[in-house]
Amino acid sequence: MSEHFFRELTELKAKLIDLGRRVTTQLEDSISSLLTNDYALAQKVIERETEVDQQEIKIEEECLKIIALYQPVSRDLRLIAAILKANNDLERIADHAVNIAQIMLALHDNPIKNFPPHLGEMIQKVTEICHRGLQAFIDRRKRLKTFLEKIGL
Known about the structure:
Elements: H1 3-36, H2 39-47, H3 49-70, H4 74-106, H5 119-139, H6 143-151
Helix pairs in contact: 1-2, 1-3, 1-4, 1-5, 2-4, 3-4, 5-6
């Protein structure tokens, strides 16, 4: 493959990592807004949704462009397919973060005072999965597979 291909693939990976960080922040902020009844933070999560959606579209378009221009095979094609899948999954996570923020806004006048006892533990596990998944992609190792096996997914 050409130098241009590898440069574009490197840029594509960087864009996905950036999206992953943004989505993780969205998720953490939406949960924090709900737990602390932070109306302004919930609003910020909702306002940032468009940026995440636009970035997801750009990554998908870039993947398709690379496939069309360079016709990658084997390992490179699998990587691009994984980026497409992760890109879609990250956008869905961001949508759920927005849903959490919208719930917070809907409950703003009547905030939840007593959360279910295991909610904190569940939140911690979800955010840990997001962080570790992103780190596994960055490291390009088998950490994610090992981690998912460890937690039973």
